[in-house]
Amino acid sequence: MERQPKAGQGMNTAFHDALNLAWKIHHVEAGFADRSILSTYESERKLIAETLLDFDAKYAALFSQRTPSASEVGGASQGGSDDEENEFIKTFKANQEFTSGYGVRYPANELNWSMNHRATSELFISEKSQVRPGYVMPSANVTRVVDANIVQLEQEIPWNGSFRIFLFAGSLAKTQRALTDLAANLQRSSSFYAAYRRIDQSEVSYHERDNPHSHFFTICTIFAAPRKEIEISKSLPALLARYSDHVYADDVWDKRVPGAQAAAHAKMGFNAETGGILVVRPDGHVGCAVDLVEGNATVDALDNYFGAFVTKKIGRRIVQARI
């Protein structure tokens, strides 16, 4: 297959093809996920390939007609007035979400929650909400608490094959009990988190910042508060505080949500008081989103989500069955 180098999509698409398949093979071979997840590679990436070929054909045809002027190229990326737009600019703009990657959506399956997913709970946030499973996690700037650096949240965890558990903790005054209950329920033996703990956990270095407890999960906590108000050891239970390098303050203004009290919370669709949890797949696409509440319901919902494709039996139902 021969393609023309338009908009830099060929190599980008190939990288995402490889990433999509690589982490799934890794999870299957490591005994974490059922082999059935391998079939999602084709259903997720085939549509992207077809969309790319269609975009390339349209764009190549426009380039073949004539060479666009420098002003047209600039107008495509920066925007021009309606009367200045021609077919070249319109085509580029119509595909901006796709070419940026943020418009790529994977269909519903066991990895991407939907109303038809096996996991059922009132805490799952609908795919019609601001945070949509299957899409790439929205970009958000936050302040890392340990060193006061402003960072891009979605880039904080390396591409290490882990599911990213983004805990939007809201206001500590409102969620302290919920955070305590979350940590306690993550540690129960039947939870998705405890079921895949590292066997060498007691020997893990203090300097391990991403996977101190499990090779398959990394937890990031984001408070809707200024950095100066967050004291990690006092604000978080021990399990969550262990990820001290991944604790953030949602205190960076964002022009996309100028009136938001906590921009990152707002961009994910979470209330700045009560927060929520965003589960992001190892390839950066959203798997599911759930409300953060007191008690065991939040972890129960996450158990149901992961239980749809992991190899071990997990969740409170398993414990009840044993009893």
List keywords for this structure.
alpha/beta; single chain; globular; seven-stranded mixed beta sheet; 323 residues
Q: Strand order across the biggest sheet?
A: 2-1-5-4-3-6-7
Q: Count the strands?
A: 7
Span between N and C termini?
A: 58 Å
Largest β-sheet summary: 7 strands, mixed
Given as residue ranges, the uncertain stretches (5+ residues, pLDDT < 50) are 318-323
Protein structure class? alpha/beta
Round the mean pLDDT to the nearest integer and report it.
Answer: 87
Give an overview of the whole structure:
There is one protein chain. 37% of the residues lie in helices and 11% in strands. It has twelve helices and seven strands. A seven-stranded mixed β-sheet has the order 2-1-5-4-3-6-7. The chain starts with 8 loop residues before the first helix and ends with a helix.
Give a quick precis of the structure.
The chain has about 325 residues and is of the alpha/beta class. It contains 12 helices and 7 strands. The longest helix is centred in the N-terminal third of the chain and has 26 residues.
Walk me through the topology.
Layout: H1 9-29, H2 40-65, H3 70-78, H4 87-94, H5 96-100, E1 141-144, E2 150-152, E3 163-170, H6 172-186, H7 192-195, E4 217-223, H8 232-235, H9 238-241, E5 247-249, H10 263-268, E6 276-280, E7 286-290, H11 297-307, H12 316-322
Parallel strand pairs: 3-4, 4-5
Antiparallel strand pairs: 1-2, 1-5, 3-6, 6-7
Helix pairs in contact: 1-2, 2-4, 3-4
